[in-house]
Amino acid sequence: MTPHTRSLFASTLLVAAVGIQAPAQDPVPPDGGFAVATVLDQTLVYEDGYNTMVDVYRPAVAPPPGGWPVLVMVHGFGGSRLVFRGPVNPADGSAGRHASRGYLVVAGDVRGHGTLRLAAVNAGKGTTVFSVRERRDLKLLIEDTLARFPLH
Asked: Most Cβ neighbours (<10 Å): which of 7, 18, 55, 149?
């Protein structure tokens, strides 16, 4: 792991803790896992007007007292959030498997990637490759997810 990657990873961990009031415990899923609820293809608008898409996967039952632990899945360079979906049923992909184990999973298209990268509304607002802008985007993604899908 390079120093830059470690810095980005540490920033991500710090940002992920924002707004969580009580620590979530590791979930104990039933045999076969929890049924999974999905909210797919949600538009998220960043501070500069850049539009991106987000998918959320969560257990389809009430959260435990400490809430669901949150897992943010970030695709590789040139990818999109779609890599975390199953080929037929989105919940059968890796994001859904984590949700079936008791996690609230959010997967978003990183700036400059994914389905809206060429949209007219995003002209001139592409990626700056791991700059402060991408870290702020990640923070907003987490805050927006927690606002839309409270852990408790």
From this structure: 55
